Amino acid sequence: MKYRLKFEKSITRWDEAIPLGNGRIGSLVWGGPSALRFSMDRTDIWDRSTPMYTEREDFTYANLVKLAKDGKTGEIREFFDAPYQCPTPTKLPSGKLIFCFSDGDHVCSELDLETAEAKFAIVSEKGTSIAEAAIVESFCHAVTKTGMIRVSASADSFRVKLEHPDFGRPEEEEEQVYDPMHREIS
After folding, report:
1. Phi/psi of residue 169, each to 5°?
2. pLDDT 10s digits, 11-42
3. How far is CA 68 from the centre of its chain?
4. Could you say which DSSP state residue 65 is in?
5. Alpha-carbon gap, residue 86 to 154, rounded angstroms
6. pLDDT digits over 105-142, tens only?
7. φ, ψ for residue 168 (rounded to 5)?
8. What is the dihedral of CA 102, 103, 106, 108, to 10 degrees?
9. DSSP 148
């Protein structure tokens, strides 16, 4: 119990999420019962393209000096600050698994720092009684470079959505939804 972080209410921000990882894959877990998000990532997915602004022939130190001598501060900012809007290399997201539970008022989260295991209890408060509607447990294996998520809940009490980065996919393409009753991705 010495090395455990506990949160009694839903974590509502990604930057306060429960971190899981093994050096190769990782996940930030956050959200409430209607959308418990596993924002997944890998260390080897990067955009290393050259920013288009830096490929111009006049993107040179000599041109910067000339614009400075001519007092063209606005042009300097417009021209030489533009690459900061498209930094590369930059990390690209892998996608999200979103667990949508039909019952529950909030999520109690626990991270065991000693075992690197996380547990999320979907809690339902009805009147004066409090009950766990579902339990989600997860970890990233240190040796096999894999992760695991186990859901203890009735199959009709939740669904799972796979949300992948759109990286140019057509907008009319439907999201993939996992139906625990049929065990298929549609």
Report:
1. -75, 150
2. 999 999 999 998 888 999 999 999 999 999 88
3. 42
4. H
5. 45
6. 999 999 999 999 999 999 988 766 567 789 999 999 88
7. 90, 10
8. -100
9. E
pLDDT per residue as tens digits for the range 40-66: 988 888 877 777 767 788 889 999 999
Predicted TM-score of the model (pTM): 0.70
| Strand 176-179 versus strand 184-185 pairing type | antiparallel
Give the three-state DSSP class for 135. Answer: strand
Q: Are 157 and 177 in contact (CB under 8 A)?
A: no
Q: Facing residues of 46 across strands?
A: 91
CB 38 within 8 A of CB 29: yes
CA-CA distance, 70 to 61, in Å (whole number)?
14
Q: Among residues 150, 164, 158, which one has the least CA distance to residue 180? A: 158
What gap in Å lies between CA 109 and CA 11, rounded to an integer? 8
Angle (CA) 163 169 174, round 5°:
50
Better-predicted residue by pLDDT, 93 or 115: 115
